[in-house]
């Protein structure tokens, strides 16, 4: 796929170069000028463009980046979807708001319209539901940081050169940032409270220049899948949160399967 797309880009560049030469020579007027506008490039095209500019960025490097973007996030994204469904299934009033939002976007129960980017942008409440699920169950519960200088935390000196693990599962439960932290309340991400919240109070995708490369893609994927399910089904979680035991692994997952009931919406 990479080699095939590379050939296509090279062919496109060659055609564009020929057209620009013709236009400059006055032989033919090409387009209406809109082609000169900057366009947002696809992920693979962006990597291939860098490869064509910089020979040190090899096709193998591209393959590794694409693998990371598309496949390394499979477990994290699937668990984020599972936890969101579980929490929505425990909260009928929240699920009702999701249904109302989706019905308003797609024109009622049972609509089979294709989801596009404009639809995804309108799913404000569903996005808040996902973020609140990620607050309670961040897909990756901890991130590491290597200290370049001494840090004093609560009177203790953490020396330069050590690696600190930041436990996001607990960071997201700080009652000063999230009152009643164990309550699933998507409105936390819709009201004005998030405007005054510390920027690192909610970091399910880590933060800084080494944050998750696929976070925007993950949210779009999660919204698409959840919207597809909730448009057609009413869901009910068969086990309370207190019953679910979490497995201590790299990705937060339940020790036993999450049991749910799906009822078609009529």
From TrEMBL:
GO CC, one annotated term: endoplasmic reticulum membrane
UniProt subcellular location: Endoplasmic reticulum membrane
InterPro entries the UniProt entry points to: Cyt_P450, Cyt_P450_CS, Cyt_P450_E_grp-IV, Cyt_P450_sf, Cytochrome_P450_Monoox
Coiled-coil regions, chain positions: none
Protein name according to UniProt: Cytochrome P450
Cofactor names: heme
Residues noted as binding heme in the record, renumbered to the chain: 212
Keywords: Endoplasmic reticulum, Heme, Iron, Membrane, Metal-binding, Monooxygenase, Oxidoreductase
Species of origin: Oppiella nova
């Amino acid at each position: 796929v990479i080699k095939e797309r590379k050939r296509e880009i090279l062919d496109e560049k060659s055609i564009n170069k020929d057209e620009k030469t013709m236009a400059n020579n006055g032989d033919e007027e090409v387009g209406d000028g809109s082609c000169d506008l900057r366009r947002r490039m696809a992920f693979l095209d962006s990597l291939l463009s860098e490869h064509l500019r910089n020979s040190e960025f090899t096709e193998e490097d591209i393959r590794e980046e694409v693998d990371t973007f598309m496949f390394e996030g499979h477990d994290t994204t699937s668990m984020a979807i599972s936890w969101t469904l579980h929490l929505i299934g425990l909260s009928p009033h929240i699920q009702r708001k999701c249904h109302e939002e989706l019905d308003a976007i797609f024109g009622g129960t049972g609509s089979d319209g294709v989801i596009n980017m404009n639809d995804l942008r309108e799913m404000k409440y569903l996005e808040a539901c996902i973020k609140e699920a990620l607050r309670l169950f961040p897909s990756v519960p901890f991130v590491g940081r290597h200290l370049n200088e001494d840090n004093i935390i609560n009177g203790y000196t953490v020396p330069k050169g050590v690696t600190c693990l930041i436990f996001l599962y607990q960071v997201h439960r700080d009652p000063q940032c999230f009152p009643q932290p164990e309550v699933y309340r998507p409105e936390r991400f819709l009201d004005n409270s998030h405007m005054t919240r510390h920027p690192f109070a909610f970091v399910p995708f880590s933060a800084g220049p080494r944050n998750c490369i696929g976070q925007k893609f993950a949210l779009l994927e999660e919204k698409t899948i959840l919207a597809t399910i909730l448009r057609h089904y009413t869901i009910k979680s068969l086990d309370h949160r207190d019953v679910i035991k979490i497995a201590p692994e790299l990705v937060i997952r339940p020790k036993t399967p999450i049991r749910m009931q799906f009822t078609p919406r009529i």
